């Protein structure tokens, strides 16, 4: 890299330790003005920590600061508060939205930076008593919205807007900051549908064209190839490479990220398929099944899932695929006839699904899936302990927790699923996304289910973890005969593992396809062109 | 449509329940409205200020401020001192306010600091803090006054000379000091304050070389002079020199003012004809003006009904007190339109977002606490000057509970409270206060049963609000976690 090159941001040799644990080991990040720079790496590679340093987050400075230098516009910068970062023109579009639902779009865009006019009181008591200038705030908000091409009234409340809109409001807020030079997008497309993601990438190009540098954190290689100019790869806290996109390829990036050859998501099984799947042996049967889950309404589905198969449920976000497992598990109000192995399920009764040996790994890891404050061990054990009475020992009339058995099982799970942690005592909330997902999976498996629902098993986790999770699901299906139902937005992953794939559109079954059906068939089914649930 | 009505009823269930209770209890008490209504207006004047002081912390996300008890204590310390020094009348009252303010600023700051270390449990913290402060308060009044600071005043102090007596009579000092400020005086003072403010504003603008809107300034000054000039006309002067305002006159004046205001708006609208390219959520609608004028006419017509007329001539409003309450309502509203108010709202909605937006969360919360404590201390002074006696060791104990209960009865919750809810709550809560012992006597032959019911109701409504708040939190536990950026950042929340 020639020294003559002009970088808007230079982070040199960054080292960060959390209580003796080195999470960043001399990382460099160089970004030119007006370029889209992809920051890539598996979960736990140190991307979040690096960004926290860039933003002067308190979590960095409460834990002993960091080593290395940060230069913004060629000037050494000491960023010790988020406010300082803001003043230097660094903005962030968060993965999980930093928006206030009760505020209007304008208020959210201008939060913390309201335009004000002075009045008599403010002249005496200082700036904080200045009156809000709603009119100019609305004007600014409209300008920012227009820049990214979002058609929305500026005075509606954010609560209830579609997820895609919220992302754009976040971007509008960052754009509205005067003198913004660097904008960080933290996995912006993770929660978007494909069409929304495309619009977002367009917006990013528009922003970059204005001379604002973009740091684009993502797992999706196709997006990087489509939109980025250059990229930096981190692995396990180490700097791996900085490359121009035009000099590299998707395969090379993937290799750099995980440090091994990319394989197919699930290896072709060398063993012959010995499973006995027949149309008469039905594990889950749905008749006129409806679920009232906000944003994921199921509006009457008839479906038979055969015992012992891996069944995929796909479809675009918001079409109702997520409602199916959530309704069965009793998390949302459901109606209709549901039979598990021929026995009817009482949808009114929470926990009845567990009694029928149906386990569920929720897509909402942090909300429904995990007890964030509790240890990994606790998280793996508790469902089985309460539902099946496992890991209990009887002393007299008391049932006590069998610590030794629980610990052994948890450790076994940690090893099998390669959960990366400091030990089974670590709080689940402290793990990275992929590892949290593995803990959820471990808990469901501890229940020894006949039927396992896995919802968005690979959302927000990296390729390495993804492969492991899917392989494990396949193994479970082959070796223990568990009927696995995967609900996912990622078609490639469904096609690589499922025996059959149901596509849900507008709350109804569009069709059931074989995984080797053509792309066109899948496309038509997802776009709602097919109705009625015929099987190909 | 049916669902809409259901939703409305469900959302306002507390208010509706209390309206039914109030009406029922009033009927059961067999008391004429000529008794209940004047009593009610007295209590509104007494209690509104302190209830309104609860709104700012709710906006800043600190819940119901049980810490206002500490503001009340600051007020009582100040009031005791000014009584001891022999200050009387409105000047004595102003001196008390001036003395109570620094105390309550200090206390509010300390409470705010404490609440910042107990984020998420401000309410329980404030409640217990009230009891803790009670100990300090008693130490000051039973030992420091007379024991350490020599005080020689047999009417105020216990016979031994150490400690303050149980009750302090304010009859000859500040009783009704604020209530009886004549309207004429208010008008005069208001006029001069306005002139001074205008002059200051002009001065600053000159100094900073900003543009001055001479036309607007001239117009407002002109209007002020005209209004002030009107007060020199004999009949108006006589009307204004009274220290209390008949409710009948108040209603009449209000109707008249509404008509004038709406006509003026209509004229302005016609003359100026604003180009409304900026179609925001609220634009002027002439039909609304008509509706207001119609309503004013109807209200005026109603005053001719004998039953209402009898009530209206029974009630005499303490003008200055009601103006203070109105000013506080105005302050609460204006504050929300400032940068500080917006910061408070942001902090109240989400501390994480506020922090990421560069707002100093802790500082904003402390300021909210200071505001609330100072306002509460002023509220307590207004209460005491109207009651006329101060129960040294008892006047503050129930302040928090009763004010909070009143706010909740009006339909407020731990997360949301408005001026309207506060005022409605005061009306309902105190109607119940007035009539329930009497209703108990009529129904069960024993006023104590009504009293029990009243206490049950006031604590019951607080318990319900807190339980509902906790329940909502449990129902969506992911709220706090879902806004955190990643696992390491969720630490910020737990600090």
Plain-language structure description:
The complex is a heterodimer of chains A (536) and B (495). Chain A has 536 residues and is an alpha/beta fold. Chain A is 33% helix and 25% strand. Chain A folds into four domains: 7-88 and 181-262, Rossmann fold (3-Layer(aba) Sandwich), CATH 3.40.50; 98-179, no CATH class; 282-357 and 450-536, P-loop containing nucleotide triphosphate hydrolases (Rossmann fold, 3-Layer(aba) Sandwich), CATH 3.40.50; 367-448, no CATH class. In chain A, a hairpin with a 2-residue loop joins strand 23 and strand 24 (508-513). Chain A starts with 8 loop residues before the first strand and ends with a strand. Chain B has helices at 2-11, 13-29, 33-52, 55-59, 68-85, 89-116, 122-148, 183-207, 214-230, 234-241, 247-272, 286-302, 306-312, 319-336, 339-349, 351-356, 361-387, 399-409, 419-444, 447-475, 478-482, 490-494, and strands spanning 167-169, 244-246, 316-318, 389-391. The two termini of chain B are 46 Å apart. Chain B is 73% helix and 2% strand. Chain B is built from 22 helices and four strands. At the A-B interface, helix 1, helix 3, helix 5, strand 8 and helix 13 of A face helix 8, helix 15, helix 16, helix 21 and helix 22 of B.
């Amino acid at each position: 890299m020639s020294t003559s090159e002009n970088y808007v941001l230079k982070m040199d040799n960054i080292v960060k330790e959390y209580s003796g644990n080195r999470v960043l080991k001399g990382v460099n990040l160089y970004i030119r003005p007006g370029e889209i720079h992809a920051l890539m790496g598996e979960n736990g590679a140190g991307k979040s920590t690096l960004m926290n340093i860039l933003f002067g987050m308190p979590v960095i400075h409460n834990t002993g600061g960091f080593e290395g230098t940060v230069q913004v516009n060629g000037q050494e910068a000491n960023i010790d508060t988020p406010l300082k970062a803001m003043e230097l023109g660094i903005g962030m579009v968060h993965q999980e939205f930093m928006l206030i639902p009760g505020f209007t779009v304008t208020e959210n865009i201008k939060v913390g930076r309201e335009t004000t006019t002075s009045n008599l009181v403010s002249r005496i008591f200082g700036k904080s008593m200045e009156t809000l200038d709603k009119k100019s705030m609305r004007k600014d908000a409209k300008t920012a919205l227009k820049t990214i091409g979002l058609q929305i009234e500026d005075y509606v409340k954010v609560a209830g807007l579609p997820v895609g809109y919220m992302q754009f409001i976040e971007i509008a807020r960052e754009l509205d900051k005067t003198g913004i030079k660097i904008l960080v997008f933290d996995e912006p497309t993770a929660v978007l549908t494909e069409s929304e993601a495309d619009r977002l990438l367009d917006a990013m190009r528009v922003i970059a064209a204005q001379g604002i540098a973009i740091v684009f954190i993502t797992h999706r290689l196709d997006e990087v190839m489509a939109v980025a100019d250059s990229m930096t790869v981190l692995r396990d806290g180490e700097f791996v490479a900085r490359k121009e996109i035009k000099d590299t390829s998707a395969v090379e990036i993937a290799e750099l990220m995980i440090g091994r050859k990319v394989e197919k998501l699930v290896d072709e099984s060398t063993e012959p398929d010995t499973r006995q799947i027949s149309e008469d042996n039905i594990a889950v049967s749905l008749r006129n099944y409806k679920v009232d889950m906000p944003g994921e309404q199921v509006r009457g589905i008839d479906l038979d899932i055969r015992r012992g198969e891996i069944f995929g449920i796909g479809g675009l976000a918001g079409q109702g695929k997520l409602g199916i497992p959530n309704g069965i598990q009793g998390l949302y109000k459901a109606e209709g006839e549901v039979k598990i192995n021929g026995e009817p399920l009482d949808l009114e009764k929470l926990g009845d699904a567990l009694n029928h040996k149906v386990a569920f790994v929720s897509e909402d890891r942090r909300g429904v899936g995990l007890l964030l404050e509790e240890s990994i061990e606790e998280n793996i054990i508790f469902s089985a302990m309460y539902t099946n009475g496992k890991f209990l020992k009887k002393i007299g009339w008391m049932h006590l927790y069998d610590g030794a058995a629980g610990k052994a099982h948890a450790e076994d799970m940690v090893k099998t699923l390669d959960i990366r942690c400091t030990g089974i005592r670590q709080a689940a909330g402290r793990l990275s996304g992929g590892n949290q997902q593995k803990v959820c999976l471990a808990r469901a498996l501890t229940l020894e289910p006949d039927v396992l629902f896995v919802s968005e098993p690979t959302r927000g986790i990296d390729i390495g973890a993804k492969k492991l999770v899917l392989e494990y699901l396949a193994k479970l299906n082959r070796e223990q005969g568990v009927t696995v139902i995967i609900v996912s937005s990622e078609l490639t992953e469904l096609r690589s593992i499922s025996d059959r794939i149901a596509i849900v559109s507008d709350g109804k079954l569009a069709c059931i396809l074989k995984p080797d059906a053509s792309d066109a068939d899948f496309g038509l089914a997802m776009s709602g062109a097919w109705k009625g649930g015929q099987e190909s | 449509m049916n669902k809409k009505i259901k939703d409305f009823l469900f959302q306002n269930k507390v208010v509706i329940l209390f309206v039914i209770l109030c009406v029922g209890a009033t009927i059961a008490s067999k008391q004429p409205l000529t008794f209940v209504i004047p009593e009610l207006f007295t209590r509104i004047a007494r209690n509104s200020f302190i209830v309104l002081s609860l709104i700012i912390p709710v906006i800043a996300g600190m819940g119901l401020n049980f810490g206002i008890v500490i503001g009340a204590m600051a007020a009582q310390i100040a009031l005791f001192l000014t009584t001891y020094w022999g200050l009387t009348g409105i000047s004595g009252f102003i001196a008390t306010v001036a003395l109570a303010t620094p105390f309550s600023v200090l206390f509010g700051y300390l409470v705010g600091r404490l609440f910042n270390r107990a984020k998420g449990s401000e309410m329980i913290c404030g409640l217990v803090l009230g009891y803790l402060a009670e100990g300090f308060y008693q130490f000051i009044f039973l030992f420091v006054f007379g024991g350490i600071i020599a005080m020689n005043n047999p009417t105020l102090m216990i016979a031994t000379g150490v400690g303050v007596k149980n009750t302090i009579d304010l009859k000859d000092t500040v009783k009704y000091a604020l209530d009886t400020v004549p309207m004429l005086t208010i008008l005069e003072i208001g006029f001069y304050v306005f002139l001074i403010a205008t002059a200051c504003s002009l001065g600053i603008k000159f100094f900073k070389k900003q543009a001055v809107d001479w036309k607007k300034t001239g117009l407002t000054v002109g209007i002020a002079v005209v209004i002030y000039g009107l007060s020199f006309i004999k009949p108006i002067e006589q009307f204004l020199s009274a220290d209390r305002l008949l409710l009948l006159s108040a209603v009449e004046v209000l109707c008249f003012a509404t008509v004038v205001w709406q006509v003026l708006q209509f004229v302005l609208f016609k003359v100026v004809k604003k180009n409304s390219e900026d179609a925001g959520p609220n634009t002027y609608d002439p039909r609304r003006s008509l509706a207001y004028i119609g309503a004013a006419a109807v209200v005026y017509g109603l005053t001719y009904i004998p039953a209402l007329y009898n009530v209206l001539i029974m009630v005499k409003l303490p003008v200055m007190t009601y103006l203070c309450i109105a000013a506080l309502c105005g302050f609460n509203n204006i504050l929300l339109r400032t940068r500080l108010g917006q910061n408070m709202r942001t902090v109240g909605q989400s501390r994480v977002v506020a922090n990421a937006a560069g707002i100093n969360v802790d500082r904003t919360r402390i300021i909210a606490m200071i505001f609330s404590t100072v306002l509460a201390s002023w509220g307590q002074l207004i209460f005491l000057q109207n009651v006329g006696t101060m129960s040294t060791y008892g006047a503050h104990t129930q302040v928090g509970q009763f004010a909070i209960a009143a706010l909740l009865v009006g339909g407020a919750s731990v997360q949301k409270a408005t001026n309207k809810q506060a005022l409605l709550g005061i009306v309902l809560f105190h109607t119940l206060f007035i009539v329930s012992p009497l209703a108990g006597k009529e129904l069960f032959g024993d006023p104590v049963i009504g009293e029990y019911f009243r206490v049950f109701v006031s604590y019951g409504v607080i318990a319900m609000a807190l339980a509902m708040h906790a329940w909502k939190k449990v129902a969506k536990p992911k709220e706090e976690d879902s806004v955190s950026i990643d696992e390491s950042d969720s630490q910020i929340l737990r600090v």
